[in-house]
Amino acid sequence: MDILEIFISLGFWAALVRMATPLIFGTLGELICERAGVLNLGIEGIMTMGAMVAWFWVYQGGELWTAVLVAAAAGALFGLLHSVFSVYLGLSQHVTGIGITLLATSLSYFAFRMLLPGVTTPPKIEPFKPLAIPFLSDLPYVGEVLFTQSPLTYLAFALVPIVGYGLYRTPLGLAVRMVGENPLAVEAQGIDVHRLRTAAVMLGSAFMAVGGGFLTISVFDAFYIGMINGRGWICVALVIFASWRPGKALAGALLFAAFEALQIRVQQASSAFIPYQFFLMMPYVLSILAMIVMSRRAAYPKALLVPFRKGER
Amino acid sequence: MRLEPRAHVPFWLNIAAPVAAVILAFAFCALLILWTGAPILESYRALLVGAFGSTFAITETLTRAAPLIFTGLAAAVAFRAKLWNIGGEGQLYAGALAATYFGTGLVTLPPLLMVPFLFLVGAVAGGLLLLLPVILKLKLRVDEVVTTLLLNFVVILFANYLLFGPWKDPLAMGWPQAAPIIDEGVLSPLVPRMRLHSGLIWAVAFAVFAWGFIRFSRWGFQIRAVGFNPEAAAFAGMPIGATVLRTALLSGGLAGMAGVCELAGLKGYLTLDLSPGFGYTGIAVAMLAGLHPLGVIAAAIFVAAIYNGADAMSRAMSISNYLADVLTATSLLLVLASVLFVRFRPRLR
Amino acid sequence: MPEVDETVPGGAGVKQVPHRDPVLRLDGVTKHFGSLTANDAVSLDLYPGEILALLGENGAGKTTLMSILFGHYVADAGHIEAFGKRLPAGSPRAAIAAGIGMVHQHFTLGENLTVLDNIVLGTESLWKPMQSRAKARRKVVALAEHFGLAVDPKRLIRDLSVGERQRVEILKALYRGARVLILDEPTAVLAPKEVETLFKTLKTMVAEGLSIIFISHKLNEVMAVADRVAVLRQGKQVAQIPIAEASKESLAQAMVGRPIAPPKREPLPPGEIVMQMAGLSMSGAPGQTALQELHLLLYGREILGIAGVSGNGQAALAALISGLRLPDGGSFELLGEAVKTTSPAQMQHRGVGRIPEDRHATGVVGDLSVEENLILEASGDRRFCDLGMLRGRVIRRYAKDLIDRFDIRGADPTTTTRALSGGNMQKVILARVLSAKPRVILANQPTRGLDVGAAAKVQELLFEARAEGAGIILISEDLEELLQVSDRIAVLYQGRLSQPVAAEDADLTALGLLMSGHGEFERYRREAGHAA
């Protein structure tokens, strides 16, 4: 199968859209946190936790959509924990984030092992069935690619304009954007900076967790150790690539997913010549390249990484 | 509540604060043990015995501590300069790769020279690997957190390729492992019939060296100044770029040496599971030590004890040994918070 | 919302009718910060349609008092009434609701957001699902036109000039229906022409019945625009009088209390040329010229004062002398040698001492100890460093000696520098710089934010250095200080330096004209089409 054939195959495009979904959730989530001035390096751990919680809920007989909510709640909880350290106590956002990732990941694995002791193959659950949107899914090509996807994928795509609207057209969104640029301006309006940042971090973390949950209850149908595999970190890179804008975040996620989907198929095609490990490296190398390209002109939110201490004028 | 900077930090507080944090971490994990239904005190006793309860336990703990000292130092040195090196894991493997390349027959030296030589090539490999993200940071403002992290995946995949491909040892009966390090390069054992090797001595030596370097040398002074306030350091004439590069070489080098330590001391040949996350755990070690090089020794032994003990505890009480990871992560966060109270005095408004 | 009183003809020189109800009443306001008493039982009244100036030295407690009024701080004692109703403490929201607006000295604007965004922030409930942008925009445009504060709501803050940003800050307050406007040192960053425009705007406002509190330490401005003036000194209120009854001398006396004799500058014959710039040009922000056709001659044993509104090239000039940048064109000589390459370290080696503008950000490393900051520039010096290792005992002794000589209070060599007061931190920087016996010194706002005593000490140290032969460039926004301390004064305007005049011969009016682009800058100003 040569390159051109890959691009024409519907399977490729459908896979692309599917693979972009967790990246969309994660990037939107991280974007909200960073817009509010908080770098959330807990994303990898929060996605892991979301994956585990969602899977476990369904495994115990729960409804799929409830699992999504539960995962979101778990994410928000870790976001709150992150915020206590990084916003309220003003500690290093880098170290806090790494700590949260380590904690969330280890708690997920611990809980998984304790809930299912002595299991070698992860038990499968009944995942989301692809939801065909009436009429639209009957369209040639586009129908199969765009309109016969998991409901969570539709949710992810819908969230892009919603987050965009929220950030740019609501008073709350304005406050969030301002708190990442100049928290003093927000405080002067009598809005509590710490609470606003915490809310943003909790919401962003909820998104991240749902992104992780998507992998278990919609793609792999099971939870296994190491399943997030660096996607969280890639989302952090994508936020910079997207210049903190939701529309560009979608574009970045799709571009990324394209490379991932391509990598699998090209690998199958030419495994004789190039070792498969180099194909697996592609997402990570590309993320680094993406950051190189965008970082120079990046207009970071001005108050990103700067803790806000009340009464300091 | 306001936080007022302390004019002088009493020495005992530097120790008391992290200790209090760790105790709290144990309390939190006691809740987890409770959840699993196992008896708390017995479980912790099993952990303690597994960590220190016999000669075997102690040597195992110390063996595990050796690479953690190296990666802990790597993180401590880097974080002091506000260089967020999360790539310890990749640098460790880079060091192991270099040592494998040179140490499996390419170069033969008498043991007194071979071992230092292997550490040297490992350090160079690790240092060079970190140099790339750091140069990107200096020249192109690329945040080093994500780049060092992503490079971990790349390096490990590369090691994977080598181990299944060109470096696969034909004598290994199908297992993905490389040829063994030649005898001259193997780190000598410290205790007969135990796995503890002289890598520990090297680790402690480097910890002392790192402490002396940061505290007493001019370059160490520059690293501290640049870490605290790069703008003021630059204005005062300190070479920021050179300082950051030196820090990168030192930090990456230390992590690379962790790889050599495990390779030439414990395993003897390169495998895929050379490191169960020492690079990441090293970050926790560094934080627990308050970024103090000598404290890293104690913190590394402590964390190694937790992991070792958790293995024993998991066998005895059927509690997943991931509890060690939870304990470490919780300690990290709580120690981070405790440092705040060391530097600042809380005052009620 | 407060009731609007009948319009009282405002403007300077008209006495207020004393028995009108005050719109604002501060009663016995007291505030402590640790052992420091920032405000000591201050009582103040503000009447409708008047401009009240709050005058005082740096550190007298003016900003603290206004911060309490606006709800940033909570007073330890005393209460405040606005429009007859008790004002809840510690809440900017309550202050805004009561009709009080504040334009801070350091603007609280989000650079990457638009003017409209900045004005509208916080005016609608955070739970509202949609902003009323069109309505808001119309209101802003109407307000701007009404008060003469022209600004385009769509522009990004980072593209605006300082004067324009201030207008946005004022609009923020007016948009929220402020009837009392507090302005904290509003003219610190404005050119004289812009100051005029501001005063006109203020007069328009009081004509509408608004009241204004104007914080300043500049006597001539206070005399020009205020109706009444209250003077604070060391936390206490020492005078509250109509402007007609005040004079610059009486106000100055009230501000300072005991006459602090400024350190005497004895005339010295200038030494040889230590620094020379000819036809220098340097670019600033993209597309802008920071310095152009700059000519400067600095002699040993003199202090050359550089006056000018901030933003006219001071930062570029300071960066040049500090070793952070090289000029794009023209010649730059230090002690007779052309400067081809530069770096802070090189400048130090050439004998240039640099006192930076922002002591916290650029001057000291707060987390290091005092002794470490004292050798921050000299860590490679053979005295302190041997084979790459620092000599702890030597450094300790050196630090103790400097602490003595420079009277650095509240510190021993191991004290964390962050814990020192502003004045003592500045002394650390001066000790570090001056003990190296530099031939050329750049002093960039050396007394900013310091109390009178610390400022006097700093000036004294500069005089000592001058007597030992150094040539000093003193950049300061305080014209009075420049006149007192400098031998010669020149004005920076749009990157050009005026012909220096001897301080004795200089007069404030002429300098003020130069600062706003008149006098010898007239032709450049016309060319550039510079409008205030």
Describe the overall structure:
The complex is a heterotrimer of chains A (313), B (349) and C (532). Chain A is 71% helix and 1% strand. Chain A has 13 helices and 2 strands, in the order αααααβαβααααααα. Chain A has helices at residues 3-8, 10-35, 43-59, 64-88, 93-115, 142-146, 151-169, 171-181, 183-188, 193-220, 231-241, 246-270, 276-295; strands at residues 131-132, 148-149. In chain A, helix 2 (10-35) packs across helix 11 (231-241). The longest helix of chain A has 28 residues, at 193-220. The radius of gyration of chain A is 20 Å and the shape is globular. The mean pLDDT of chain A is 88. With 349 residues, chain B is mainly α. Chain B has a domain at 67-285. Chain B contains 13 helices and 4 strands. Chain B has helices at residues 11-36, 40-52, 55-80, 88-103, 111-140, 144-164, 199-216, 218-228, 230-235, 240-267, 278-288, 293-317, 323-343, and strands at 2-5, 177-180, 269-271, 344-347. In chain B, the strands form 2 sheets. A two-stranded antiparallel ribbon of chain B has the order 1-4. A two-stranded antiparallel ribbon of chain B has the order 2-3. Chain B starts with a strand and ends with a strand. The model of chain B has no long low-confidence stretch (mean pLDDT 90). Chain C is α/β, with parallel strands linked by helices. Chain C has 18 helices and 23 strands. In chain C, the strands form 5 sheets. In chain C, strands 13, 16, 19, 20, 21, 22 and 23 form a 7-stranded mixed sheet that branches. Chain C has a 6-stranded mixed sheet with strand order 6-7-8-3-9-10, sandwiched between helices. In chain C, strands 2-1-4-5 form a 4-stranded antiparallel sheet, covered by helices on one side. In chain C, helix 14 runs parallel beside helix 15. Chain C is globular, with a radius of gyration of 25 Å. The model of chain C is unreliable at 1-17 (pLDDT under 50). The interface between A and B is large, with 45 and 47 residues.
